[in-house]
Amino acid sequence: MSQLQVAINSLDARDVASDRSRIAQRMEVFRDVLPTKSRPLLVNRGTTDPTSVEPRIPEVENADLSVDILRAALAGQGALIVRGMFSKAETEALTKVIDRVMDCANEPKKIRDTLVSPYFCPPENLASIMPEKQLELAALRMFNGASGAIMAVEAPSVAESLLQFYDQHGIRQLLAEYLGEAPCLSAKKWVLRRSQLPINASGWHQDGAFMGTDINSLNLWIPLTECGGETGAPGMDVVPRRLYDIATAEGATFDWSVSDDHVQQGAFAVQPVAPVFQPGDAFFFDHLYLHRTQSRDDFTRDRYAIETWFFGETTFPKDQIPVKW
Ligand SMILES: O=C(O)CCC(=O)C(=O)O
Question: Which of 144, 285, 292 to mutate to test the pocket of ligand 1 (most atoms within 8 A of CB)?
Fold first, then answer.
């Protein structure tokens, strides 16, 4: 079997300093670049009549995936599950990598700050590239840490190997065709996840509520653990329909979230669902899709996942810190 880019032995052999400067450079490219306003948005009311589309999550086997299927699903229902996009060997390797990254990130600050590790070595410009600098980075780390998440760019060797891994799976090509231009990523919203139980029930949100809606986006969410439904590990709760607007935050925890009451009371004319995911499935959705980490009282297992938000290279939300691909 050929060596896996994302396996521990490949990562251990990487040049950490060079990966670190490459990730820094990928962010630096955008430091003074603003998104263009002239590009047409992919999501607009003209593309599909929502009343003609059944509210459900469309699914496709990886072998049958095409940009047309992705486009139709996103336009009609806001999301697409691709079954079996990644192999068992790949998801097992990625799970081990996430454990290593979390172990490094959880080291006492004195040790963490000196690490030059494939699993933790944040690029030197990570704070300076954020509008609120150190304050913003510290707040983000705290917010992520509370749910068991860490930005992939904090581990540049992992981030670089993930980019290669995505490329090998044809994801860059697929995204370029879908977005109509080269994709970039988001430093803030490219995260490695190992869920922390119990899950906070108040997490309904559309990412467009804080990213803005004048963007073209696609999130690739990769579960690395069997999760969702009745599996005992948290998947995602979703409102399975295309939305065109940001829902009200009235009664919600944050000004970018949506209250559970609002969702359960039928505000979206459909009940939420919690699909079952197998490790290696891919869940694509955009910034208007309403979702949260699945919430129940009886979870028994942690769940690993990777979330990667992509944008068009000219239609990105500046404050999400675009990363050149
Ligand atoms: O992994 C999760 O449970 C949450 C993911 C999420 O909110 C997202 O991908 O936007």
Answer: 292
CA 214 to ligand 1 centroid distance, Å: 21
The runs of H, that is alpha helices, within 169-276 are: 171-179, 208-211, 260-264
CA nearest ligand 1 atom 2, residue:
293
Give the tens place of pLDDT for each residue, 274-293: 999 999 999 999 999 999 99
**Can you tell me the mean pLDDT for 154-160?**
98
Quick: pLDDT tens for 166-208. Answer: 999 999 999 999 999 999 999 999 999 999 899 988 799 999 9
Give the CATH number of domain 8-31+57-323; options: 3.30.930.10, 3.30.200.20, 1.10.760.10, 2.60.120.620: 2.60.120.620
Q: Could you tell me the residue ranges of all domains in the chain?
A: 8-31+57-323
Q: What was the pLDDT predicted at 259?
A: 94
Measured by CA distance, the residue closest to atom 1 of ligand 1 is 293
Closest by CA to 75, choosing from 243, 274, 268, is: 243
Nearest to 181 by CA among 70, 39, 72: 39
Interval between CA 225 and ligand 1 midpoint (Å): 14
Q: What is the CA(293)–ligand 1 centre distance, in A?
A: 6
* pLDDT band per the 50, 70, 90 thresholds, residue 50: low
Residue 307 CA, ligand 1 centroid: distance in Å: 7
Q: Coil, helix or strand for 8? A: helix
H or E segment to which residue 19 belongs: helix 16-28
For 79, phi then psi, to 5°, come to -160, 165
- Predicted confidence at residue 2, as pLDDT, reads 54
Residue 203 CA, closest ligand 1 atom number: 7
Question: How many Å apart are CA 2 and CA 17, to the nearest integer?
Answer: 25
The crossing angle, in degrees rounded to 10, of helices 156-168 and 171-179 is 80
